[in-house]
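Lab notebook, bench 4. The sequencing result for the construct came back, and we need a structural model before the next group meeting so we can plan mutations. Quick request posted to the team channel:

Model the 3D structure of this chain.
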Amino acid sequence: MRITNLEGDDPQPFLLGANYWPRKRPMDLWKTFDIDEVHDDFATLSELGIDVIRLFLLWEDFQPDPSTIRCASLAHLLQACDAAAAEGLKVDLTFFVGHLGGCNWAPSWLVDHGVASAQSTPLIVGGRIVRNGKIRSPYDDAEARRAAVRLVRGVAKAIAGHSAVRSYDLGHEPERFVVPNNSALAADWLRELAQAIHNVDAERPITCGLHADSLVRADLLRVDQVFANLDFSVVHAAVPSSTLSDHSLDNDFVSFACALVAALTNKPCLLQSWGLKRRLPPLSEQLLAKHVGETLSQLVDVGATGAYLSCFSDDLCDRSEGTRLECGTEERSFGLLRCDGTPRRHAEVLRRFAESNPIVKPAVRRVNLNMSADEYYANPAEHLQRLYFEFKHGSEATSL
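Done. Here's the predicted structure in token form:
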């Protein structure tokens, strides 16, 4: 599939997507799979103008041990893809879902139980909070690397011919799941996985969902190294994502993050996860709707290939009390739908934007990088601050 075509006679649509978990039992999607619920949700997404659904293959549900791929989960995945195809939707398949919703979700075999970990992020194994356990690095642990290759190859073999599959994604913020000891080694891990998929399915593109934190810290996954071996670049720019933002609804920071990734990778960027991660005060949905509309327009201006909303519905709608306490005590009110299934104002904004049939356009607003990726990552926090100020106020402005 072509990701974008800026010069031909066949302009590519600006993709509108959403990260998907069902409103009820979200993290138990594959454990208690309900095809009627999934199909109904997909119909709602299609009505809202969504093109692409991002499905998360929670690692423990698809690979309960290093040598096994759970057939029941593969069968449910095929059913979900059938439902998407029936509603005219495409699917992005995301592997190695470890960090999600403020917690780390790891298969038991990847955890050294009883070993203290320096990581403060709550760890969940088998639906339970683990108080004393350390996740082994998937980047350089030999067993984990073999298991990862086995998983991507097995899923690709099962799904390669399905018309609904648009792309593969090698992780949801893997740098927040386990901080790599060496960013180049972690990038090599992603290259190996991409090659394993392409050996089975050479047609569909591959990416990896990196958080905007990877633009600030050199010890995480460098975007230039990661996307050099993948087919298109993405970024997660949840708001607020940086102290550089003047306020929590900062259109400029979201579009800037996408433009900076494009500059560092020389590849058009997809904004893959985007939302407001805090409780909205009363009557503020109108402000969020305005922010969504303005940000979508700005993303077109920076040449982005699309934008995915962070959540189909509010997070934590029906999570157990234990994980609610550990992963966040407040409902995260940035979903297209509320917990009761009613749409928010920005869902209508998204639908109207979709009806305008937006297309990918050459960037009219760019980040003026003026340095190599190595130079940028020598001091990324300082460069990010200066580049963001110039992007927002013009290149002639004095740096903060």
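Residues 1-8, 320-325 have pLDDT under 50 and may be disordered.
Will bring this to the meeting.
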